[in-house]
Amino acid sequence: MSKTKSKKEIETANIADPSQWNFGTKCLQAGWKPKVGEPRVLPIFQSTTYKYEDVDDVERLFALKQSGNKYTRTGNPTVAAFESKITELEGGVGAVATASGQSAVLLAISNLVKAGDHIVASKHIYGGSYTLLSVRLAKLGIETAFINPEDSIAEIRKAFRPNTKVLFGETIGNPALGILDFEKLSKLAKEFDVPFFVDNTLATPFLVRPLQHGANVVIHSATKYIDGHAIALGGVVIDGGNYNWDNGKFPDLVEPDAQYANTSYTQKFGRAAFIAKARAQFLRDFGACLSPFNAFLLNLGLETLHLRMPQHSANALALAEYLSKNPAVNWVSYPGLKTNPNYKHIRKYFDYKGGSGVLTFGLKGGKAAIRSFVKALKVAALVVHVGDARTSVLHPATSTHSQLSPKDRLAAGIPDDMIRVSVGIEDPRDIIADFEQAINVSIKGGK
Ligand SMILES: *Cc1c(COP(=O)(O)O)cnc(C)c1O
Asked: What is the pTM of this model?
């Protein structure tokens, strides 16, 4: 089992400076810094509005001349504490939390593109992001070229156009489980001078921090490992503060915004221009904000991220090793297996050399075997979700990818025998015993 701690984590921090604290300490204490007599635990500020006495103060808020809360759609102290914690964990300059992961992807992209613009995206991405790009945004006049991130630089280069505004990929692609070669893709993003967006949902900042490997914006469905208990939807976009928006391609970040007293985001917010604009425009106009209650739950989830991710990774590795030896299993795909072609990227980019909790495998015996296997599970459950502390399984061919033909499914890397497992943090002996007995039932059922 992969138990190696990154060097960073065992170094002693400069304790007087919270920005120097180690990752696990930040999971518990970043974001909410109570003053004397204030609650130790992040409170839920369950209020839509904030009190003011001076008209001038409110006028300054509306002109972006003063920071502060005006209305919970664009800011709330509980939500802000969650945003600030995840900003520290990813190493960015600011974040905006959203109602869901879907709205996080939409926020990040719509902050930069308009009709006539173009996106280059990995084709190995979450189904919802794929339809957002390929159908919804296409209908709004924004075209996406889908690339295989494993192709050569020369091949991927062909997808870029003069009007390309974003390169988009996922750290661990869902469900093919390929790991991005950050060096290759960030080189391409620099060559074409476009920002590199990375959805880091399945890896989390505990395993890898994409901003350290050339990404400019990080996106999460906080619904998955950040929550970790399958209790709340949420999303978040983190600004790396490491892209020069003043390169002629993004005038909306540079030129005055007439709705906000002619503020130029790059002039007023400097390195945090992207995220300031996202809050001021997207939250105001699209309104897909995170609720204070869900921010409280997601913050609570983050408090144990550094404990859960090693256990998810260790359990998934143990199950992957077990399944690799089971003769009723056709194949196993788990990037944390040393024999997996993606393991080299884990070694190169991941702070903690674990492969997260998601694996896939092919079960022998066809649909009947799969049906009896799923039915026989006692610890794991059939659930449309990943990242829960409880183990869950899904058969993509009859669920998330049932609308595709078997041929198209295969092209998307989803053979009909594939079972996707989100390995939880239960005792790994019980998880393995559960899969063993259910596979034994499936061998009978498959006949
Ligand atoms: C689930 C998921 C999303 C969408 O998030 P929701 O919170 O369900 O809206 C986006 N990207 C990835 C990688 C996901 O797994």
From this structure: 0.95
